[in-house]
Amino acid sequence: MRVPGYRDTPPRPWDTTADVDPGEAADFLRRCYAENPKFGPVGPRLAVVAAQLAATGTYTHTPDELAYGAKLAWRNASRCIGRLYWRSLVVLDRRRAHTADDIFSLLVTHLRIAGGHRPIGDGRIGEATRPGHIRPVISIFAPAVPGRPYARVHNEQLIRYAGHDSAGGVVGDPRYVEFTARMRAYGWQSTGAPYEVLPLAIETPAEGVRLYRLPADAVLEVPIRHPEYDWFAELELRWHAVPAIANMRLTVGGVHYPLAPFSGWYMGTEIGARNLADADRYNLLPEVARRLDLDTTRESTLWRDRALVELNRAVLWSFESAGVRIADHHTESDRFLRHLANEERVGRPTPADWTWIVPPMSGGLTGVFHRYYDEADQRPNFYLDEEARHLGRYGTPPPGCPAHRPAGGAEPAAAPAAAPAETSAPASRRAGTAPAARPGVPAAEGAPALSARIAPPVRRRPTYAGDAREPGP
């Protein structure tokens, strides 16, 4: 699969059995210590790491190295327009967590911190905890050890909406129809609602795959209204406030972290021009155009453009009115140009993928449109592996990947709920509204709803049997 952003320098494939590259480890450490003199001289550290590599084939990052490596990965992420704030990334070191219950609990904490529901807990003075005060956060779990299985989350993002096939078409997000069906095959009982949050599918080597329902206060949502058109409320639109990528691999100094979900805040067009507008997603432009009484009989009336602008106005106005952080594409484009200037002043190249940096609407009106960018595979960085991509889209490994059924040879079945992740009282999922239970969800919102059948400890990572669809575009 060709990945936009690396047309000149394709990323190196991940060999899960290979030892850490000593050269890559040394390059990272030299850069890390050069940019952080307070870490001390790099020479002694290089000697320690060389000894660890010789003995084990890998090495362990210090907390400072891990935190700065994650920030460098954001700085190097060629598809991200929001890199001006790379130094502000909140890094949560979760390398000691190994069980599915522990991982789920910490993912819930991640969402609560990212959404502003709770403080980071590192002693910062005057730290805001207002819901809607979105912060960039990454949770980094245990690294992959060469040749050994590792924990991972199957979902593309920690928060995404289910898609349900029905006689009248898809209800919810069409992108996740296959993933939703797979979760239901595992025993998840869905409501069929258009904005139903998918369960988290967490896989560990010892436990197989387990499903967890996110608690209410971990999923901050914003109802979408319009500043002028009251009928927008009749569409009953909403979207979650924290985009949290869950299936990309973080690589720092040759060490791979397959479970390192990261989140920031939305640029309005990600919701209004893609998630809600794309023909293969919620496809709302025809309905918005109909409500606006636009002439849709021919493209030259620009009805799609007019509907798109109003939909994006509604998204931005709704988030701002609810006090939830969001950025418009003009402001974010200007900020990216500031980031380029900052990096140029210190002599650092800035890899960027034009096809991702330019916003999906009014691109020519933004400064990022009118220039070229260098493309390079700079490390540390984030990578989307084919197996992770396919699992996140369809809930199954891609064709050709070895698949092993859980113990007993049967499909995973529903099992009793695990212990609650946290006991703090849930707050509202929606900004500015009173807490309300979702239809069909038990009152014990903080507890995982179900789990797949747990496989006994195994030495090889369990995957799933069943029909696998070809990946989409």
Automatic annotation (TrEMBL):
InterPro entries membership: NOS, NOS_dom_1, NOS_dom_2, NOS_dom_3, NOS_N, NOS_N_sf
What span is annotated as the signal peptide, if there is one?
Answer: none
Top-level taxonomic group: Bacteria
Q: What is this protein called?
A: Nitric oxide synthase (NOS) domain-containing protein
PANTHER family xref list: NITRIC OXIDE SYNTHASE, NITRIC OXIDE SYNTHASE OXYGENASE
Q: In the record, what terms sit under GO molecular function? A: metal ion binding; nitric-oxide synthase activity
- Where is the Nitric oxide synthase (NOS) domain positioned along the sequence? 79-86
Q: Where is the composition biased (Low complexity)?
A: 402-449
Map out region (Disordered) in residue numbers.
393-473
Q: Which organism is it from?
A: Pilimelia terevasa
Q: Where are the transmembrane segments?
A: none
